[in-house]
Write a structure and sequence with these properties.
Helix content is 31%, strand content 17%. It is an alpha+beta fold. The two termini are 26 Å apart. The structure holds adenosine-5'-triphosphate and 2-amino-6-hydroxymethyl-7,8-dihydro-3H-pteridin-4-one (PH2).
Length: 163
């Protein structure tokens, strides 16, 4: 909710400004039909690739603290949020703990995740899913609800990364 593009770009900037995290690549920004709770506005979704020496759980804590910085405008419980940051993959690891599951358990059924992911990593392998990502996307029903909203080369990367 709110100025979605601004929240996304500010979040990426905060991630990149963290001493232990380096943003390597970003996808285009996609406008996507809401999945699950459908009686809400469309989402903007994107995927980024980072390099980090943080452990997965430390990475989650960083992302949650950034989410909290942006969560002030939440007005409806379980309703639309300003920002949601998920870890999709971490190297080729499989992690199952109470706080963190990697690969993200619902990523392989979500076009709003897989299409931006495919844009930046065409050959990515999702541990536990024995299919190329392009094949998974082709079989998904919800891919029609995902369209490019702002091309990657239209995103102001300098505004993101200049301090
Ligand atoms: N890979 C992951 N990335 C982010 N959070 C995760 C992951 N695996 C488990 N979690 C847990 O999920 C919780 C996030 O729940 P949240 O309310 O944001 O879910 P959601 O974003 O609404 O739904 P979804 O998880 O289906 O996208 C966090 O508290 C975190 O502990
Ligand atoms: N299109 C879209 N739908 C969603 C999304 C999302 O990021 N994009 N996130 C959800 C919960 O995390 C639920 N539904």
């Amino acid at each position: 909710m709110g100025n979605k593009e601004e929240y996304l770009l500010k979040a990426i900037r905060e991630i990149h400004l963290h001493t232990n995290i380096q943003v390597l690549d970003i996808s285009s920004i996609y406008e996507t039909e809401p999945v699950g709770f459908t009686n809400q506005d469309h989402f903007l979704n994107m995927v980024i690739e980072v390099k980090t020496d943080l452990a997965p759980i430390e990475m989650l804590e960083v992302l949650q603290s950034i989410e909290n910085d942006f969560d002030r405008k939440r007005i409806v419980r379980w309703g639309p949020r300003t920002l949601d940051l998920d870890i999709l993959l971490y190297n080729h690891e499989n992690i199952v703990t109470e706080q963190l599951i990697i690969p993200h358990p619902r990523m392989h059924e979500r076009s709003f995740v897989l299409i931006p992911l495919y844009e930046i990593q065409k050959d990515i392998y999702i541990p536990g899913i024995d299919k190329p990502i392009a094949d998974i996307i082709n079989q998904l029903q919800d891919k029609e609800g995902v369209r490019i909203w702002k091309q990657k080369n239209g995103v102001d990367v300098f505004a993101l990364f200049e301090s």
